[in-house]
Amino acid sequence: MAKLIDESDPRELLRAALPDCPPMLFRALARAGDFAGDAQFYRRLAAVARGPFADAFLNTSRSADGGRLAYYEMLARLDPAITRLQHALPENEKLAATVDSIIRLLRAHGALHEDDLDLPPGAGLSAVVRRLRAALARIPAPDPGFAPPPPFRLVGNTAELQRVGRDLSLCVALPAMFAAHHHINVVAGTRVYLTADNPPLFASLRKLGSAAWFLDRIVGPQNADAPPVVRQTLERDLAAAGLILIPIEPGRALWRLDAEARGTLSRLENVDEEFGDLAF
User: Fold this and answer.
1) What are the E-state strand segments in the chain?
2) Are 193 and 180 in contact (CB under 8 A)?
3) Which of the chain's ends, N or C, has fewer CB atoms near its CB within 10 Å?
4) Can you give the pTM of this predicted structure?
C-alpha cells in the first residue's frame, strides 16, 4: 500500500477514492488542516464538492475545515432560494437559518417574487435584508373583523407600520429593539395596529383567541401616552363595534391573582411596576 501511494499521482488516488470529484477538490485538501480526517469527513467533503455550493466552498483561499463543511451542508437543507443568495451572505449558520425562515414565511403567504433574490454581484447582507423587507410588505394585515372607529385607520402592512413608527418616533420602527416582532404581528394578525393623523396617535390591540381583545396602549409621538379620555373614547367605540375588550392584560391579571393567593403580592409589586407595559 505504501508503495502504491508513493508511486501514484495523488490526483489519481483521490479520483479512485472519490469518483467524479471536481478537480478543485484536490487543491482544497491543501487547506483542510495538518491532520488527516476520518473517512466520513472526506465523504462529506466530496458530497459538498458535487453539490450546488461547490464553487463557493472550493474556489476560495479559506480553509476547507469541518466548520465550513457543516455550513455548506446546512445550506443544502434550506430553501433552494438560498443558492441565489449565498454569495451575499457571510458563512454563518445562524444567519442563513434566519434568512431561510423569512423566505419560508414569504412563500407561505405567496409574497416572494421570482426576481426578489436576484442580487447583483457585490451585493451584501444589507441588500438581502432590503429585498426581504420589501417582500414582507406585500403581505396585507389580515382583516380584523371590525372597522376601526374614526379617526383611526388600520395599519395595512409592515411598510406602513415602519412609516408610521418612523414619523412618530415610535419603537415599532426598525431598527428599534423588538420592532421586528411588531412587524411579524402585522403579518400574523396577532395584533392590530391603528393610527390617526390629527392628532397623531398610534394604538395596539392584542388578539386573545377568537373573541376577545386587549387594548395595549394608545400613544402619540415619541411613545407619549395619550390622555385618558382618548383611551376611554376608543374603548367605548370598539365596544360599540361589537368587540369584547379585556380591561387588564390577562397574563398580568393571572400573575397578580396567583401572587395574591400566595401572599407574595406586596413583596413582588415593585417587580410588577418595573415590568411595565411591553406593548412598545
Assistant:
1) 153-154, 191-196, 201-208, 212-219, 244-245
2) no
3) N
4) 0.79
